[in-house]
Amino acid sequence: MQYTPQSSPYLFGGTRPWTPSSWTSTDDRVRGGASHSYLTIHEAPNTATFHGTLDITALGGAGFASQRTTTTSHVWDLTPYDGLELSVPKSDGKKYTLTLKDELLPRRPDGRERSGLVWEYDFRVPKGGDKLRVPWGEFRPTYRGREVSGVKPLDLGGVRRVGIMVRSFFGEQEGEFELVVESIKGFKKEEGEGESEGRYRDDPEDLGEDEYEFDEKVWDERHTKGLGWFSCCGLF
């Protein structure tokens, strides 16, 4: 497929100002939860504040709140870049997740979105703010909240959706949250800059967790049992 590279490395912020109409919320209320998220845009300086309340009482210790892009026609070609850079001038120190999708499946007859692969990166930013560079190899493929293996690589020339999420990690965090993002853009490594040392893991013990081969036809039968509220259909 022939891709047309972006004229600017910025997806949001910088030369491509944040706009409220480009984002919408997807919170755990779709699963009976009580979390709420908002994306408030500031003009001077042009930043976006992802904020709200992460509730874990309604779903027994679980919960999530997220904002994602609304477009179904725009495609980001990120092939010229080595990863994404987030400029975060202010954070509350909670753990957040940056999400990407390269495919938007047709909706179900009842209007709900179908499940699909979501590429995720979990991160924390100090309260004083920081710039975070995420190489493509740091994004992990997930399906219905579970990491999977044996899947096709992320199509960097055809990214269809971008999202920011906060979740409880089953009781690890809750309450009010706030993350101020100045920009999200592609970055290129400097000459001589080495490869990443490996994917960030919040809990090193998770290295022993089982991984699953992805087969959408048999996934519901084999793997959704026990996922509970997080087995939501293509939400992020």
In short:
This protein is 3% helix and 36% strand.
Model description:
With 236 residues, the chain is mostly beta strands. The chain has a single domain, classed as Jelly Rolls (Sandwich). 3% of the residues lie in helices and 36% in strands. It contains 1 helix and 16 strands. A hairpin with a 2-residue loop joins strand 11 and strand 12.
Helix/strand class: mainly beta
Low-confidence stretches: 196-234
What's the overall average pLDDT, rounded?
83
Largest sheet: 8 strands, mixed
* Distance between the amino and carboxyl termini: 25 Å
Give, in spatial order, the strands making up the sheet with the most strands.
Answer: 2-5-13-8-9-11-12-16
CATH superfamily: Galactose-binding lectin
Predict the CATH topology. Answer: Jelly Rolls
| CATH class type | Mainly Beta
Q: What is the share of helical residues?
A: under 10%
For the record, the CATH architecture stands as Sandwich
Strand content: 35-45%
Order of helices and strands: EEEEEEEEEEEEEEEEH
User: What is the total tally of β strands?
Assistant: 16
Radius of gyration: 17 Å
Domain NADH:ubiquinone oxidoreductase intermediate-associated protein: 19-181
InterPro entries: Galactose-bd-like_sf (IPR008979), NADH-UbQ_OxRdtase-assoc_prot30 (IPR013857), NDUFAF1 (IPR039131)
Family: Belongs to the CIA30 family.
Organism: Aspergillus heteromorphus CBS 117.55
